[in-house]
Amino acid sequence: MTHGSADNSYWQPIASKIVHLLLTLALAATPIPVPATTSSYAVYDRITHTIKGRDVHKPIRSASLVKILIAIEQLETRGDDPRIEPMLRVSDDYSASELWVENGWEQVVVRTAARLGLQDTRPPERRGMWGYTAVSAYDVVQTYRYLLERAKPEVRKTIMGHLKRAEKCASDGFDQSFGLPSATWRPAFKQGWSGFGDPVEPCVDTPRPRIAYDLDLKSPAMHTSGTCGFSVVAVLTLHPEGTSYAEAAKRVTRVTEEVTKYRC
To answer: Whose C-alpha in 14, 21, 123, 233 is 20 to 30 A from the C-alpha of 108?
Structure first.
């Protein structure tokens, strides 16, 4: 009995160490799950007047999609302005910031959301950060429907005209041809992105520096929205930190291809 007890006391610590080592090796061999892209989308059929999608009312920060609301507010209350063209065609941040301030900061969102009947759109908590406006895929689609169905002809022609002529290169050096312009034929489109730092390979020779508050974001956001064929489309996405712009662009384009299949 005495010898048996001594043997157990000798082997137990060793057995515990072996079990701990095996568990450590098993954990090390288990792959760490990569956070999935968060995406919501809405597609409105202008022929059947039906809307389909996923998480259509999920709030998500707008990035540059809010520039459409800035343009609507400017055109409907103060008239046309030469800064609307670069703001919509090349997603110019400087033009957006100036028009945002001149039209009342966060009141741009408050007024347009009420006028357009948007359900999920809210102004940013920090009034200077227009890119933090909360939108949903449903409300983005409703914004395009407002332009196509209810806005005054001059408002519709100005905004949709610029979106039909949106350029490949944005003013900050990013390639904005992901999503709708890559997945569909001749769309009118407005893109949004933030949280990617500076472009690795600038789309223009002398990219304009990004506004400082665009860099202060945690999860990279990338959105595509617009019209194609008889559809109005909004695809809004958030990506894990560290996702490259190119990788996010590929993901957005894949989702867009799926949701617009046989439509555009």
So the answer is: 233
Q: What is the DSSP string of 195-251?
A: SS-S-SS-SSSSPPPPPGGGT--SS-EEEEEEEETTEEEEEEEE--TT--HHHHHHH
CA atoms of 48 and 58, how far apart (whole Å)? 24
pLDDT in tens, 92-126: 999 999 999 999 999 999 999 999 999 999 999 99
**Does residue 153 sit in the same domain as residue 216?**
yes
Whole-number Å distance between alpha carbons of 142 and 199? 31
Hey, what amino acid is at 96?
A
Q: What is the DSSP string of 34-101?
A: PPPPEEEEEEEETTTTEEEEESTT--EE-GGGGHHHHHHHHHHHT---TTHHHHHHS--HHHHHHHHH
Question: Quick one: 4 and 39 in the same domain?
Answer: no
Q: What is the pTM of this model?
A: 0.80
Which pLDDT tens digit goes with each residue over 1-10? 434 444 555 5
Domain match, 119 and 14 both = no
